[in-house]
């Protein structure tokens, strides 16, 4: 487990303890856990590789309330990119692990939720990144929940330059210098499943297909615009009041 994953899980677990929570009539719950993700070894790669999946999903403020608007925290983790791990990255600088923290605004109407998220990166990148999307929830049984979703990933020039740019010192004969602009960099569709095999403990799965767009997709580092991934793990439902 990475240090970032460990710290995130410790913090989430601590927040869920009644001794640390003062009830102000509000409640926040979410799934937190760990799993394995099989995805491109770097953004734009045509080779798939296994990596840790930090599960921080399905956040819900005031569960059971009427449909409407919610403001939730938004967290994400991006794994490191080592040039030595792939011949296709020869001569590129390494990129360390990155964390992202921000807010997510969502609007729920029945089983349909639309959302927008914005986060600031630290560590491997310092850009601003986020998503616009929608998800449809289907309760297949009292234990099995399914979601289908579509979203557009957005990043500023700092973000796209970090993962899709080629600096002057990194350029080769077959890899020219490249400075991508920010904007929409990927479109994704997904199917997710959550099976609660024990009270507040669930098996999580996610299948995603992404397609790189714009300047990101045109990068000389990109071997294929298609970016599929499959993830599976176990998560605990954490609840706390404030």
Automatic annotation (TrEMBL):
Broad class of where this protein is predominantly found: membrane
Signal peptide start-end: 1-21
Keyword ATP-binding: no
Protein keywords: Cell outer membrane, Membrane, Signal
Compartments reported by the entry: Cell outer membrane
Entry keyword annotation includes Disulfide bond: no
Gene Ontology cellular-component terms listed: cell outer membrane
Domain of life: Bacteria
Residue stretches spanning the membrane: none
One Pfam family hit: MipA
Family as reported in the entry's similarity comment: Belongs to the MipA/OmpV family.
Name of the protein described by the UniProt record: MltA-interacting MipA family protein
Organism of provenance: Paracoccus denitrificans (strain Pd 1222)
């Amino acid at each position: 487990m990475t240090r970032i994953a460990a710290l995130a899980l410790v913090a989430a677990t601590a927040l869920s303890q009644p001794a640390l929570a003062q009830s102000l009539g509000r409640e926040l719950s979410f799934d937190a856990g760990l799993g394995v993700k099989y995805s491109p070894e770097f953004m734009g790669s045509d080779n798939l590789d296994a990596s840790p999946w930090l599960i921080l999903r399905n956040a819900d403020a005031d569960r059971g309330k009427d449909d409407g608007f919610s403001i939730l925290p938004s967290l994400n983790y991006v794994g490191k990119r080592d040039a030595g791990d792939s011949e296709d990255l020869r001569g590129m600088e390494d990129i360390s692990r990155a964390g992202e923290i921000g807010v997510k605004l969502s609007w729920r109407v029945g089983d349909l939720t639309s959302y927008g998220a914005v986060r600031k990166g630290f560590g491997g990148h310092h850009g601003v990144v986020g998503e616009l999307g929608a998800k449809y929830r289907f309760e297949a049984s009292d234990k099995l929940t399914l979601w289908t979703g579509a979203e557009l990933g957005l990043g500023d020039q700092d973000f796209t330059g970090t993962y899709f740019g080629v600096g002057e010192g990194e350029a080769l004969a077959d890899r020219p210098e490249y400075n991508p602009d920010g904007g929409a960099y990927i479109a994704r569709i997904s199917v997710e499943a959550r099976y609660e095999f024990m009270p507040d403990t669930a098996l999580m799965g996610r299948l995603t297909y992404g397609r790189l767009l714009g300047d990101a997709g045109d990068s000389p580092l990109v071997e294929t615009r298609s970016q599929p991934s499959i993830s599976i793990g176990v998560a605990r439902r954490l609840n706390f009041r404030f």
